[in-house]
Amino acid sequence: MPSRAVGPLRDGDLLAALDLGSNSFHIVVAQRVLGQLRVVDRLRETVRMAEGLNALGGLSPEVCERALACLSRFGQRIADIPPRQVRAVATNTVRQLRSPEAFLGPAEAALGHAIDVISGREEARLVYLGVAHEQPPQDDQKRLVIDIGGGSTECIIGRGFTPLERESLQVGCVASTRRFFEGGKLTRKRWNAALTEVALQFQQFAAPYRSLGWDEAIGTSGTHKAIGNICASMKLTKGAITREALAVVRDRILQAGRIEDIDLPGLSDDRRPVIAGGVLVLEAAFDALDLSRLQVSKAALREGVLYDLLGRGGADDPRDVSVAALMQRYGVDAAQAARVEATALALFDQVAKAWSLGAEDRAVLSRAAHLHEIGLAIAHSGYHTHGAYVLQHSDIAGFSQQGQRFLAALVRAHRRSVPKSAFEMIPDRLLANARHLAALLRLAVLLHRSRGNETPAGLQLQAEGEKLVLRMDKRWLQARPLLRADLESEPEDMLGLGINLKLALD
């Protein structure tokens, strides 16, 4: 599958964002017009991925088949859109899978595009981005945004277009309905016990959120839209959700006695099986955050993915902002990082065609060069291992989980021997590129071990299959015995990447 290229988009280009949620799969297609996005198509299918998730992290064959069939249909819609203009993200249910790749492999084949698994906090950032662009706020206005999905709930406080606080909870409309109302039975006793348990999750961050405060509260996603429609149909509000209206809706749900018997004005048949869990989570949020009123937004995660995609490859790429923030936080030597980056990219340009590496690969190598020494803030001994751990396990804005693991693998493999485990989390479709980029980063780091500004004279790199020939000026290298010793021992370590390195001196 081709990697996404980077670079500015042009007017007329189509972009597509796919949200593989725990309840529904969504796709939105938009056209870039004068730097803005104009939506031209939307598709939605109820898949209910969370229904198929078992306690061991497996996915039922029935739900998996349902998901793949949906992705195949979505893939037909976006078949003519270039890969760099498409982004698909998977959320809580895929995050919870014991072996995500067992699902992602067939899913990517069905869709015809890569699928990024994003963390809960990254999901929160993208949700806020979507709301902020669809309903532009005042610069000094703070907003609370709540997104109740099928398997998780995201809560964000932001000012303008910038999220200030992000939290993700393991509660959602599908998961909560399954867990707390097993067998479809609805009783007040069950409801109150469930409400207490869900409220405890909100209490983890409720106090600092209330202390920070907000000027406006907004709900997004299908759950909020459904509850807003019910409130309007019952003439409780004009579409907003208030504490009083929510209590009326809750009581009507409990009066039904069973989920299949819920009968509320404005409630679709599609939403009925999961509305109880959604109302439960929202009531817990109202109580914990002391809410009185919530506006409902039409925007959601998919809109955020679109606007994020619009900014990628340009000055607003959130990944580059995050890299700069990490460098500052961990005290990275920026001058050394720049030296390593310059040499790594020079080597890249010489072998890119032979190794079929694209612009996105070049951007990844650049970011890895900037971050390869972040582990030094923890300890010099094994700093490459420390750095890899930080990159894999941190919440880094703009990156998918696969993207973070890719960076972590490059940092882990940039020095010393390369363990087999370094690339075990990399999808098969990315493995060759990961090994090749790691080889380029290793050479660049070795060549700048002295941390000086000089660049090697007559440096040339040739690639043929898994063979690399590094050609250098002999007299220049003889004047640097430490570097020569490093380079002479490097071919043995490079075998850990499956690459045969040869040093040629002219």
TrEMBL record:
Q: Where are the transmembrane segments?
A: none
> CDD domains annotated for this entry?
ASKHA_NBD_EcPPX-GppA-like
Q: Where is the Ppx/GppA phosphatase N-terminal domain?
A: 28-311
Looking up Pfam families in the UniProt record yields: Ppx-GppA, Ppx-GppA_III
Q: Name one GO molecular function term.
A: exopolyphosphatase activity
InterPro entries, alphabetized: ATPase_NBD, Exopolyphosphatase, GppA/Ppx_hydrolase, Ppx_GppA_C, Ppx_GppA_N, PyroPPase_GppA_Ppx
Name all Ppx/GppA phosphatase C-terminal domain ranges. 319-490
Q: Which reaction does it catalyse?
A: [phosphate](n) + H2O = [phosphate](n-1) + phosphate + H(+)
What cofactor does this protein call for?
Mg(2+)
Please tell me whether the keyword Protein biosynthesis is annotated for this protein. Answer: no
Q: Name the Enzyme Commission number(s) assigned to this protein.
A: 3.6.1.11
Q: How does the entry describe its membrane topology?
A: Peripheral membrane protein
Which cellular component, as a GO term, is one annotated location?
plasma membrane
Q: Which EC class is this protein assigned?
A: hydrolase
Family under the similarity heading? Belongs to the GppA/Ppx family.
Q: Which PANTHER family match?
A: EXOPOLYPHOSPHATASE (PTHR30005)
Q: What is this protein called?
A: Exopolyphosphatase
Organism the protein comes from:
Thermomonas brevis
